[in-house]
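Weekly structure sync, notes
Attendees: PL (lead), two postdocs, one rotation student
Agenda item 3: pending single-chain targets
PL asked that the sequence for the first pending target be pasted directly into the notes so everyone works from the same version. It is reproduced below exactly as submitted, 155 residues in total.
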Amino acid sequence: MPKEVQVEEFANAAGVESEPSAWLTISQDRVNQFADATNDHQYIHVDLERAAASPFGGTIAHGFLTLSLVVDLIADDMLVPAGTGTTINYGSDKLRFLAPVRVGQRIRARQEITDVSEKRPGHWLVNRSVVVEIEGSDKPALIAELLLLHIVGDS
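Predicted structure, written out during the meeting:
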């Protein structure tokens, strides 16, 4: 569950860095389901034998699968203004996929609030710098500036 803080504290949250999320193992089943959902059945994601002979040495997660897991990864340690009823994905800036995530590897996310602005009363736009780490790797899977809109109450 996100961590609610008073609006005054939230308005000044730029620079707050959260603890890393729990590790999440990327399974072949998850990758296959994502492939089915997006019609992206490229062999590097779903064909174990052919992918083993690729430069990746096995199947890898789709970059957009990794990105789609970010909100879930950061949710437990996400600061939100007290009374938030809805949080909406607003966009992403400077998204880069830096390293492939092999099936069976574990990932986690780190987040830092870099900007907070009240777009209109009760509508808080937050820019979070997010890094998705791969266990045992010096290179992250991805980096992004994630924009989330937190709507307080029924605003």
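Discussion points:
- The mean pLDDT is 96.
- The two ends are 21 Å apart (CA to CA).
Action: rotation student to compare against the earlier draft before next sync.
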